[in-house]
């Protein structure tokens, strides 16, 4: 239980109370606006308490997770190998805990009928002319 009274957890508890009070206060404000004739405020009057409930849900889930976990000094990280019964230093794994994604080079597909597109070839010539003449305007293209 002492794990829930560290400075980081005290900030979380205070943030939860402030957020829940703020959401419920905004919900009450929307109820008073709805009672004054603003019809759309009825939806917001329902929405703000739902937000407050979500804050409580996340806070409660984090509290349960902290209480179920081991103390921080002997906690095992998610990628660490299982502890062995043999005494002595553990061997270092060559496999990293997080692997990099495999990159696949994609080659553009050839046209289905095998014929070159004349408009595409002309456009590519135009783009290469613009690249070769950086100060030119598109209206200066001779082709």
TrEMBL record:
Q: Where is the composition biased (Low complexity)?
A: 74-95
Task: List all membrane-crossing ranges.
Answer: 9-29, 41-60
Q: Where are the residues of the annotated region Disordered?
A: 69-95
Which keywords label this protein? Membrane, Transmembrane, Transmembrane helix
Q: Can the keyword Transmembrane helix be found in this entry's annotation?
A: yes
Q: Which domain of life is it from?
A: Bacteria
Among its keywords, does the record have Transmembrane?
yes
Mind telling me what this protein is named? Answer: DNA-binding transcriptional regulator of glucitol operon
Q: What is the lineage of its organism?
A: Bacteria, Bacillati, Actinomycetota, Actinomycetes, Micromonosporales
